[in-house]
Amino acid sequence: MYSINSIPLYILSFTFLLHSVIGADPLYHICSSNSVNYTSGSPFDNNLNTLFNQLSVKVPPTGYGLSSVGSKVGDTVHGLALCRGDVSNADCKTCINSAIKEIENVCPSNKAAIIWYDDCLLKYSDVNFFGTIDTQNKFYLYNTQNVNDTASFNLSVKELLSDLSAIASQSQRLYAAGEMSLLRGLVQCTRDLSSSQCKKCLDDAITELPSCCDGKRGGRVVGGSCNFRYELYPFFSL
Fold first, then answer.
1. Which fold has domain 138-231?
2. Model confidence at 11: pLDDT above 70
3. What average pLDDT does this structure show over 83-105?
4. 3-state DSSP assignment of residue 97
5. DSSP string computed for 116-179
6. What DSSP state is assigned to residue 95?
7. CA-CA distance, 201 to 208, in Å (whole number)?
8. Edge-to-edge strand order for the sheet containing 28-31?
């Protein structure tokens, strides 16, 4: 399967130990090192610009969009963008436009790249990845503070996220958010996945809790097809 992950997960998990993130700044990005670069003004460059224009229009009304532009092998580009389920149309549009501008700056001439923000995700490639769970592009974020009762807290986090995974996978938007006492959780999948694929993606991400966020007051596993987040403070709108 084609992958645009050029940095091993174990490096990401130790490098991105962020206590807080400014919503307007990207969380992280990955540029492909596995494909031939394109040149400015080439058919691929023109198709990529068309793709970005399409996504900037298609995504904000529903929070999701995907498109393929071009018909010739090597020049065709496939892409999708997803906004967080509780983000307004206006904030979604702002995030997508910021992601488009930023990915062009940080991954110039790359035929495949992905960028994550708090409010959205943007991904494109010269290989069709639609309907396939992205198991390569992934990183962790967690709160540096620990809870007192680690074992009990970990069980509560897993229970909440597992419940939300089941709900999200059966929803039209493949998104769910909720709370359990003081614990808040959010899960989401890209909508090119089927219900069963979404469930698998989220459940697999949840199994990484011990590696990602053992006893941490907040944490995330963020991937190219799905993500989860939990905190002990409000961070989403119901």
1. Killer Toxin P4; Chain A (3.30.430)
2. no
3. 97
4. helix
5. E-SSEEEEEESS--TTS---SSEEEEE-SPBPS-HHHHHHHHHHHHHHHHHHHHTSTTSEEEEE
6. H
7. 11
8. 28-31, 113-116, 120-125, 77-83, 64-69
Three-state secondary-structure class, residue 234: coil
For 111-133, what is each residue's pLDDT tens digit? 999 999 999 999 999 999 999 99
Domain covering 20-125 in this structure, CATH number: 3.30.430.20
* Within this chain, domains 20-125 and 138-231 share the same CATH topology: yes
**In the block, which residue shows the tokens 């691929």?**
44
**Residue whose entry in the numeric block shows the structure tokens 């549009």:** 93
Find out whether 65 and 54 touch, Cβ atoms under 8 Å.
Answer: yes
Structure tokens at 146: 């620990």
pLDDT for residue 22: 39
| Residues 6 or more apart whose Cβ sits within 8 Å of residue 92 | 59, 60, 63, 83, 119, 120
Give 148-170 pLDDT, tens digit per residue. Answer: 999 999 999 999 999 999 999 99
